[in-house]
Amino acid sequence: QAESAVEFDDSMVCMPCSPSAGNDEQDVNALQEAADQGNPTAQFALGISYDRGEHVARDPVRAAYWYRKAADQGEAKAQFNLAGCFASGEGIGRDEAKAAHWYELAACQGLAEAEVNIGLC
Q1: pLDDT tens-place string over residues 72-90
Q2: Cα–Cα distance for residue pair 114/81, rounded to 1 Å
Q3: pLDDT tens track for 38-65
Q4: Dihedral of the CA atoms 18, 27, 31, 2 (nearest 10)?
Q5: What is the Cα–Cα distance from 95 to 75, expressed in whole angstroms?
Q6: What's the pTM value of the predicted model, to 2 decimals?
Q7: To the nearest 10°, the Cα dihedral for 24, 36, 71, 91?
Q8: What's the 3-state SS for the chain?
Q9: How far apart are the C-alpha atoms of 24 and 67, rounded to whole Å?
Protein backbone atom coordinates (compact mmCIF):
# COMPACT_ATOMS: atom_id res chain seq x y z
CA GLN A 1 0.00 0.00 0.00
CA ALA A 2 1.40 3.41 -0.95
CA GLU A 3 2.24 5.93 1.72
CA SER A 4 -0.39 8.61 2.20
CA ALA A 5 0.63 12.04 0.95
CA VAL A 6 -1.34 13.61 3.78
CA GLU A 7 0.42 14.28 7.04
CA PHE A 8 -1.94 12.62 9.46
CA ASP A 9 -1.16 12.37 13.13
CA ASP A 10 -3.01 9.48 14.79
CA SER A 11 -3.52 11.74 17.81
CA MET A 12 -6.16 13.45 15.65
CA VAL A 13 -8.41 10.49 16.46
CA CYS A 14 -9.15 12.28 19.72
CA MET A 15 -9.88 15.52 17.87
CA PRO A 16 -13.63 14.91 17.77
CA CYS A 17 -13.66 14.02 21.47
CA SER A 18 -12.43 17.31 22.85
CA PRO A 19 -12.20 20.98 21.93
CA SER A 20 -9.37 21.57 19.51
CA ALA A 21 -6.66 24.06 20.26
CA GLY A 22 -6.16 24.52 16.52
CA ASN A 23 -8.32 25.48 13.60
CA ASP A 24 -11.32 23.12 13.48
CA GLU A 25 -11.83 23.56 9.75
CA GLN A 26 -8.18 22.76 8.99
CA ASP A 27 -8.29 19.76 11.34
CA VAL A 28 -11.43 18.40 9.70
CA ASN A 29 -10.04 19.04 6.22
CA ALA A 30 -6.85 17.11 7.06
CA LEU A 31 -8.92 14.32 8.57
CA GLN A 32 -11.18 14.23 5.50
CA GLU A 33 -8.22 14.11 3.13
CA ALA A 34 -6.58 11.27 5.07
CA ALA A 35 -9.90 9.39 5.21
CA ASP A 36 -10.40 9.86 1.46
CA GLN A 37 -6.94 8.36 0.92
CA GLY A 38 -7.92 5.23 2.84
CA ASN A 39 -6.47 5.82 6.31
CA PRO A 40 -8.69 3.68 8.57
CA THR A 41 -7.84 5.67 11.70
CA ALA A 42 -8.91 8.87 9.96
CA GLN A 43 -12.03 7.17 8.61
CA PHE A 44 -13.00 6.06 12.11
CA ALA A 45 -12.33 9.53 13.54
CA LEU A 46 -14.41 11.13 10.81
CA GLY A 47 -17.21 8.69 11.60
CA ILE A 48 -17.06 9.78 15.23
CA SER A 49 -17.20 13.43 14.18
CA TYR A 50 -20.33 12.88 12.08
CA ASP A 51 -21.87 10.60 14.71
CA ARG A 52 -21.50 13.18 17.47
CA GLY A 53 -21.81 16.33 15.40
CA GLU A 54 -18.47 17.59 16.63
CA HIS A 55 -16.59 19.93 14.29
CA VAL A 56 -19.10 19.00 11.53
CA ALA A 57 -22.88 18.89 11.28
CA ARG A 58 -24.25 15.70 12.81
CA ASP A 59 -24.99 13.21 10.05
CA PRO A 60 -25.71 9.58 11.03
CA VAL A 61 -25.63 8.43 7.40
CA ARG A 62 -22.12 9.82 6.89
CA ALA A 63 -21.07 8.42 10.27
CA ALA A 64 -22.16 4.92 9.22
CA TYR A 65 -20.43 5.37 5.85
CA TRP A 66 -17.08 6.23 7.46
CA TYR A 67 -17.42 3.55 10.12
CA ARG A 68 -17.99 1.02 7.30
CA LYS A 69 -14.91 2.19 5.40
CA ALA A 70 -12.72 1.77 8.51
CA ALA A 71 -14.47 -1.44 9.60
CA ASP A 72 -13.81 -3.02 6.20
CA GLN A 73 -10.10 -2.43 6.86
CA GLY A 74 -10.24 -4.18 10.22
CA GLU A 75 -10.54 -1.21 12.60
CA ALA A 76 -12.13 -2.91 15.65
CA LYS A 77 -13.68 0.22 17.17
CA ALA A 78 -15.20 1.11 13.80
CA GLN A 79 -16.58 -2.42 13.55
CA PHE A 80 -18.13 -1.96 16.99
CA ASN A 81 -19.65 1.42 16.10
CA LEU A 82 -20.93 0.11 12.76
CA ALA A 83 -22.55 -2.79 14.61
CA GLY A 84 -24.24 -0.23 16.84
CA CYS A 85 -25.55 1.57 13.76
CA PHE A 86 -27.02 -1.67 12.43
CA ALA A 87 -28.45 -2.53 15.86
CA SER A 88 -30.18 0.85 16.24
CA GLY A 89 -30.90 1.55 12.59
CA GLU A 90 -29.38 5.01 12.93
CA GLY A 91 -27.80 6.14 9.69
CA ILE A 92 -28.24 2.73 8.10
CA GLY A 93 -31.02 0.18 7.83
CA ARG A 94 -31.64 -1.77 11.02
CA ASP A 95 -30.28 -5.29 10.65
CA GLU A 96 -29.65 -7.46 13.70
CA ALA A 97 -27.76 -10.11 11.73
CA LYS A 98 -25.31 -7.52 10.40
CA ALA A 99 -24.99 -6.00 13.86
CA ALA A 100 -24.08 -9.43 15.24
CA HIS A 101 -21.58 -9.96 12.42
CA TRP A 102 -19.75 -6.68 13.09
CA TYR A 103 -19.84 -7.17 16.87
CA GLU A 104 -18.32 -10.61 16.35
CA LEU A 105 -15.52 -9.26 14.17
CA ALA A 106 -14.70 -6.61 16.75
CA ALA A 107 -14.87 -9.16 19.57
CA CYS A 108 -12.47 -11.46 17.71
CA GLN A 109 -9.95 -8.61 17.91
CA GLY A 110 -10.37 -8.48 21.68
CA LEU A 111 -12.70 -5.49 21.97
CA ALA A 112 -14.43 -6.23 25.29
CA GLU A 113 -17.44 -4.01 24.58
CA ALA A 114 -18.16 -6.07 21.46
CA GLU A 115 -17.85 -9.33 23.39
CA VAL A 116 -20.58 -8.09 25.75
CA ASN A 117 -22.83 -6.87 22.92
CA ILE A 118 -22.74 -10.14 20.98
CA GLY A 119 -25.28 -11.50 23.45
CA LEU A 120 -27.56 -8.50 22.91
CA CYS A 121 -28.12 -9.00 19.18
Answers
A1: 999 999 999 999 999 999 9
A2: 9
A3: 999 999 999 999 999 999 999 999 999 9
A4: -130
A5: 20
A6: 0.79
A7: 70
A8: CCCCCCCCCHHHHHHHHCCCCCCHHHHHHHHHHHHHCCCHHHHHHHHHHHHHCCCCCCCHHHHHHHHHHHHHCCCHHHHHHHHHHHHHCCCCCCCHHHHHHHHHHHHHCCCHHHHHHHCCC
A9: 21
